[in-house]
Amino acid sequence: MTTMGRDVVIVGAGFAGTSVFLHLIRAASERGGGRPPLRSVRVVDPRPVGWGVAFGDRDPLLLCNSAAEVNSLRSDDPGDFVAYLRQRHAWTGAPQDCVPRARMAEYCQDRYAEAHALAGALGIEAGHVPATVESVDAGADGRRVVRLSTGRRLPADAVVVCTGVHRPRVPDGFAGFTGHPRYLDSPYPSDRTRRLRPGSRVLVLGTRQSAVDAALLLGRDGHRVTMTSPSGLLPAVRHSLGAPVRPFPSIDGIARLDADDPALEDKVRRRVVEAVRLLSDRPLRHQVSTAADPVRRLRENTALVEAGACVWPGVVVAALEAVIALSEKLSAEGREALMRRFSWFIARYATAMTVVNARRLLALFDGGALRLVGSYPRAVSVDDDGWWVRRPGGEEAERFDYVVNGTGFQQPALHRSPDGASLSLSGGATAVDRLDADLRVRPYPGAPPEPVWLAGVGTHVRIPFANHLRNVVRQAHLVAETIAGAAPEATPQPGRARRPAHDPANGGQ
Predict the structure, then answer these.
(1) In Å, how far from its chain's centre is CA 3?
(2) So where are the chain's domains?
(3) Please, what is the Cα angle at 503 between 497 and 506, to 5 degrees?
(4) Which of 58, 211, 345, 475 has the fewest other C-beta atoms within 10 Å?
(5) Sign of torsion, CA 306 312 315 321?
(6) Do 6-165+423-506 and 175-235+354-405 share a fold?
(7) pLDDT given at position 88
């Protein structure tokens, strides 16, 4: 380390990278007296701060799926985003409401600017570097050299990799068409769908969050949309993904369950159901529709939410965080098995859509602009006239003008070069598939840690629900406090951070 303070490079300027930046500058400011522990903090991303894939779209139709009350960048102030909305945008909504994603991008950008000004006052060189990181290479004296697409090289005592999702998944049967002009590999950014020929027939691959966004954007712009997926099922419906409404002893006990218990899934399920019972006498099975037809199910689920008959969303975040804590005891294989066991919860409850989007989808179904088919294409081809799609059991091909992939994105992965000296996000000999509790990268289990940390979605190799924003903020706090040299007793563990007294999850105001 340098005697003048540490040089830090944050790779990625989305929510996670911004949160790490804020926590680093705050940790430096709280040291008091003498030189700050940081000499420089640079955030590297080709996009402006905050305007990544997750939130960087100005179309007001695209909403956050989580409530404003759980979207704070600061671990010590869960209400910071709500306060920002009220102060900066005169927002009058409830903390449990969802807001357009662009508000999150603006929030990240504004809070970054405030922290950047504080860094300058502390004598810390800070800034955003508009470039792509090509590799993180071993340098002299244990330092790292961050190599950029511009040819610039940034020396660093600490590197925090906070890149989110960027690479769309490739749906079955479409690997050979990913570069075709009539194929959109993602509905984001939304201006891509606005370039389609008016009144087109569009096939949307997928029926979950990204596909719902695609259908809403296309339907609003006057296209005729067909959604399809192997399951043929739409997400459940809820008001939002908000903070736990009260403590849940049964869910808190999930972290203490035996991870090797073959009955783990049933025990987790029973504890979640017990928590729901604390909120309502209405059984969980009566709070969601079981209709076989997906559109009817959507309609009934929406009606249940609008009637106030769904309380299960109040336990979802508590359950997510309990499973994150439980996963700390597991091996990589054990975590994968746990997530397979817990897939029922993820598919139905964790990834439910907002009731606002549910109403919008129903309007498209009722107006004839949207339909859903339950059979995924068995064969596809494309020519100058468009796509020809054949379904199982169907003799005639159906024609579409465009195909939009709404199956989501691949998880980001960090790769190590054959000689072990470089880390890259674009590929390499070996994927980094293990991460210790301190979120530091190690070349092999038990090896000394490298001065490279992960935070955010990239921690999926260790932590389930790695995109859960409350947990991302705790990670940012952990990493920042470690790099800045703060007292370890003040550092929260991922998924186990102390809750401030005013956190709604503690029953406070």
Answers:
(1) 37
(2) 6-165+423-506, 175-235+354-405, 248-295+315-349
(3) 85
(4) 58
(5) negative
(6) yes
(7) 95
Q: Considering only CA atoms, give the Rg of the chain.
A: 23
**pTM to 2 decimals?**
0.91
Whether 388 and 382 have beta carbons less than 8 Å apart is answered as: yes
CATH architecture of the domain with residue range 175-235+354-405: 3-Layer(bba) Sandwich (3.50)
Nearest Cα residue to 75 out of 463, 503, 484:
503
pLDDT in tens, 435-486: 888 999 988 878 888 999 999 999 998 898 999 999 999 999 999 999 998 4
Identify whether 155 is preceded by a cis peptide bond (ω within 30 of 0).
Answer: no
If pLDDT is split at 50, 70 and 90, which confidence band does 339 have? Answer: confident
Q: What angle do CA 155, 158, 163 make, to 5 degrees?
A: 100
Spell out the alpha helix ranges (H) of 14-170: 15-29, 80-89, 101-122
- Give the range among 208-217, 282-291, 432-441, 493-502 with minimum mean pLDDT: 493-502
Give the angle 423-426-428 at the CA atoms, nearest 5°.
Answer: 55
Look at residue 183 and give its three-state secondary structure.
strand
Task: Give the position of tokens 């736990």.
Answer: 244
